[in-house]
User: What shape does this take?
Amino acid sequence: MTVWFITGASRGFGREIAQQVLERGDKVVAAVRRPEEVERAFAAYGDRLLAVPLDVTDEAQAAKAVQAATDVFGRIDVLVNNAGRGVLGAVEETSDEAARGVFDTNVFGLLNVTRAVLPVMRRRGRGHIINLSSIGGFRGVAGFGVYCSTKFAVEGLSEALHQELSPLGIKVTIVEPGYFRTDFLDGTSLHIEEQVIPDYEATAGAVRGAVPGLNHSQPGDPVRGAAAILEIVDTDTPPLRVQLGSDCAEAMDHKVAELAEESRAWRKLALSTDHDDVAEQS
Assistant: This one.
């Protein structure tokens, strides 16, 4: 029986993952701001659910949540860093307060929880960390520049963690969902900046205008997305990075092709910057 520690388990992907994990007989530590909501929602699963209070931006609270999990279940096999928030606005339109807020949750919050869980996994020499990123963690998009930058940070951290933890028996997977029909585009998860600069009307402004029409009509199915994450955890050789959704897969292919084309076009310039002795060796 696997023990899952899931942040942001009260809604969206987190809730759906918790639901499917409990349905198949595993145990869940649901780390959320309001544990009573999760306890009511999953009351039928009895003592296989432990709901603990957690604001991921609070390092001390993260340590307490992990301690509570190990006190009750003895271990943590899978950590799902799902808690996150978004901000919509051109980079210049986004205030310092809004930018720091989204970094506090998406990056520093993830770090708080990961640092708290890793000693538990290292002692056992096994574990799996699932970090929820986004297609925005591989490709920046006008209007979501600050949000994308947090996911770029998650990807860099995750790649380094993969290298550091693989020799210790701990796996790391970056999950990059496209647009899924969760409540991420609702006001509860997405902050829309009030400042509007007319010069960005055709770029970030166009995205701002399109978001209300996208909400709850996204192509991705959260039930299937959660099932895919369970499948990743169940495999013996999980990927470091995986895309979820046809929109994400297509965007990834386009970005990879762009990178390859640009690299070829500017390769001569790149090689021209080496010292002469390096150039002679090559």
Summary: The chain has a mean pLDDT of 92.
